[in-house]
Amino acid sequence: MRLRAVLFDMDGTLLDTAPDFIAISQAMLAERGLAPVADKTVRDVISGGARAMVCATFGIEPEDARFEPLRLEFLERYQRDCAVHSRLFDGMETVLDDIEKGGLLWGVVTNKPLRFAEPIMQRLGLAERSALLICPDHVKNSKPDPEPLILACATLKLDPASVLFVGDDLRDIESGRDAGTRTAAVRFGYIHPEDNPNNWGADVVVDHPLDLRKVLDSALCGC
Predict the structure, then answer these.
(1) End-to-end CA gap in the chain
(2) Per-residue pLDDT tens digits for 42-89
(3) Which of 198, 159, 199 is nearest to 182 (CA)?
(4) Comparing C-alpha atoms, which of 153, 94, 93, 155 is closest to residue 125?
(5) Cis peptide before 160 (omega within 30 of 0)
(6) 3-state secondary structure string, 49-78?
(7) Which residues are catalytic?
(8) Cα separation values, 209 from 31, 73, 176, 205, Å
(9) CB 104 within 8 A of CB 144
């Protein structure tokens, strides 16, 4: 079946949002007179959300009495500064241009709450280009459940088999596969050092955003 749409996970796939997370983590440490952590410490756990980033930044566990106040502060800061340094990954603008020139739709299906995801899309000028934005607010079950992808395909009125879902986490691939979409795993995202995209069962694995152009060409020509 001919490809009709490409859907992206947000953090670590479409957008490099790590610089904002890292800036917030380092600022919270500095304001407490604590030494900075290596940027990689934060980047490696981004897929685990605010909980994982706070734990990694401060070297604590969720059971620690300091955890919840720090998590809430982290989220409050991110609400304010969620799109200061975030950008499309290098090469992704070209991919989006190719998708649009090819007459395909594209959109975002993310586990990031709408209160963060929507402002980011707006501030980066992507909201008016994207066909949809599906967040946990729109479903009962987030990825890896297939519900977000099923909703996305239904909203676009497309057969899931005509949709490619691109992500940087096993949850993305599981969600897409169980929803019936084609799947592409990316190596350039926020992948834990002990994880391996080759083991996720994606239809294809790519090293760089521009590698998606070959995937799109193949899908469009039915190769």
Answers:
(1) 11
(2) 999 998 899 999 999 999 999 999 999 999 999 999 999 999 999 999
(3) 159
(4) 93
(5) no
(6) HHHHHHHHHHCCCCCCCCHHHHHHHHHHHH
(7) 9, 11
(8) 36, 33, 19, 11
(9) no
